[in-house]
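Researcher: Dear colleague, please comment on this protein.
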Amino acid sequence: MDLLLRCRQNNWRKLAFIGIAKHAGKTTALNAFLHQLSDAEESVGLLSIGVDGERLDAILGVPKPRVFAEYGTYVASAERALLDSGALFEWIAELPISSPLGPVMVVRVTTPGTVVLAGIRQRAHVQMAVDALRHLGCHFVLVDGAFDRVAAATPTLVDAAVLAVGAVVGNTVQEVADNAQPVIARFGLQETGPEWKALFAQARRNRQAALAVEREDAPGHLDVLYVPAHAVMFDVTRQMGWSDDVVAVYIPGAVTDGTVDSLLRHPRDIQIVADHPAQVLLSGRAHRRLMRHGHGLSVWDRLPLAAIAANPHHIAGVDLPRVELLSAVAEVAGDVPVFDALHMAETTSDALEANRTALQGGEG
């Protein structure tokens, strides 16, 4: 699977690398793409939201891959993190971003090696760093979304995302695919229609939640009620102004299973509007229940998946069958290409064909 070609064809220049879980293979996928970009002599900028690139995993205490930067790569990271890196740098600029590890610096790799990415923890700071790297002439900017940092996959910051799916989320190939399906589905949600965007535009500008309520005295006419964003984190139906006449709700934060559970009691179809795919944190079961009740779910801004990196390796040392895993994830991935970062030439179609051949051989 040629990820670089796919990015060029779709004019995706800013990519987020995110994982379905810790140890899903995100860093391996990032390193593989960095190597491909280097081979193609593309100028690259690199940063992380959160902390990544550590020598030892901070949670489980097991070795993990480190981010490896090739010669000429531009990096935005905290000063002390850079000093702890294996690569050597030309120091270019200091950004107005402070962190416990010192100011965030922009550097250029002069001797290839591992890099520690840290110091950037806010969406506005990601935007500042991305802009600085683009200003330096980086054709591609890669944002490493450290564990539990969905902000990396924000459509206002990046053009597309690469999702890492690994054996760490299941004991069998099918279990991994089943757990990956609802996450992949978030990125396939429809964009919110213009009528709802017009209705909720002010709420979105002000980062408020909002309810669209059909007027009893004028059927078809909608009033908008504004509520604090934090007030809809759990049971939105308990908010002042909620009634059986609510037909839509805009939620600027996370849409969770708890959000859905409260809406299942609503007597009429309702449209839920989320900001973007990374804010939709529904399980597959909750999403299916929502659809069965006739409710709708859309995202204000879509974010395409550039690819899915399926990692058969488990940190406990028990790996899943590689070809079977690629095939199973491809079955739930729709038209998104699936690859193993350690074998990037392996395409989705190759994996599916190999799996079919194996099955036919078993039947014979």
